[in-house]
Amino acid sequence: MKGREARPHIGIFGRRNNGKSSLINVLGGQDIAIVSKIPGTTTDPVKKSIEIPGIGPAVMIDTAGMDDSGELGDMRTKKSLDTIKIIDLALLIIAGNTFGVEEEKIIENFKKWEVSFIIIHNKSDLAPITDQLFSILEKKYHVSVLNFSTLFPENIELLISTIRKEIPESAYLAKTLIGDIISQGDLVLLITPIDDEAPEGRLILPQVQAIRDILDNDAIAVVAKEREVDALLKVLKPRPALAITDSQVFLKADASVPDDIPLTSFSTVLARYKGDFDNYLLGTPHLSELKSGDKVLILESCTHHVSCDDIGRIKIPRWLSNFTGQDLSYQVVSGLDKVPGKITDYSMVIQCGGCMITRKQLINRLKPAIDAGIPVSNYGMSIAYMQGIYNRAIAPFVKSDNHNTNYL
Known about the structure:
The chain is of the alpha/beta class and 408 residues long. It has helices spanning 20-28, 70-83, 101-112, 131-141, 156-166, 205-216, 229-235, 250-256, 266-274, 277-283, 311-324, 359-371, 379-386, 390-394; strands spanning 9-14, 46-52, 56-62, 89-95, 116-122, 145-147, 187-191, 220-224, 242-245, 263-265, 295-299, 329-333, 348-351, 376-378. The strands form 3 sheets. Strands 2-3-1-4-5-6 form a 6-stranded mixed β-sheet, sandwiched between helices. Helix 11 (311-324) runs parallel beside helix 13. The longest helix has 14 residues, at 70-83. It starts with 8 loop residues before the first strand and ends in a 14-residue tail after the last helix.
């Protein structure tokens, strides 16, 4: 299963008092969401962690009622709709055989963000869904429609099995980071600098993930700081089948690691594992086409202490300005905060590795830019491009007969 940061996210949507919070309690097997007969008890999206059989740990997001009214209600509704961008599966709760404009609006957003969904007719103990409505919904939306009662959840197993069926496997089954390019018994060298940005007493998450993936594939991980690599390679046996470096010391790693040993970066590995790798391949070379006055959007997908030499806020802007020789401006957005202005205000988007968010969240984070034709790249791939070692960084993952790698 995926790690904590990549748990599948399931959003629950519907009108006020349709039983959204009650459904979370039923699925979680305990009272983890506040339930009340007063309409509008849930005012903002609230995350609850639960365990779903066959999927594992998941995050349920309880949203405000889509029929909320007034200025404040409109704000709550907008927040609920924004939640769709970060989920892997949606549960649309209806009741009393009521289906109208509010539900159609939600479904339009599900389709816009390519989110699978299930329609659940709750309170079926009071009024089951009519055959007519059931037939209309199944034929119109081609999705699973379930009769359910949170008060008498007799078919809870059917609901859980439907969730397992409809949620994309990519949301909870971890694919390998590098298992498809290494073999049993291979030695993989991990070059991990320990500097001001390194967390105290531990490795960063991508490095930990790489070590685990290497072990899961019955290979051997050797970890060293960049200044130890030259001496290590003189005595290291067997010869590394692959070397992975932190992007910030890519030039040093490129000089130290012989050309016959494939070399890439943790960020490039994450770009392929979780990001939109094909669009990164298309977008990264556009770094050479930036001109004075262009605005570059840098997306950090987590919040962290900003050091004086921060990779996203300081180093990449400095390196990119020096690389292009142009007078560029930069906008950094952390977490999943809203991007200031219009996406078309930007000439380039550079996304971090996204180790703290789900693949769905990262893909949807980039979707507006890609839809608008704005080039997108990734921290590690951008750094490799600017440092003249882009082809080497992507070579372990790109077959020359499928992609043109002569970008430099």
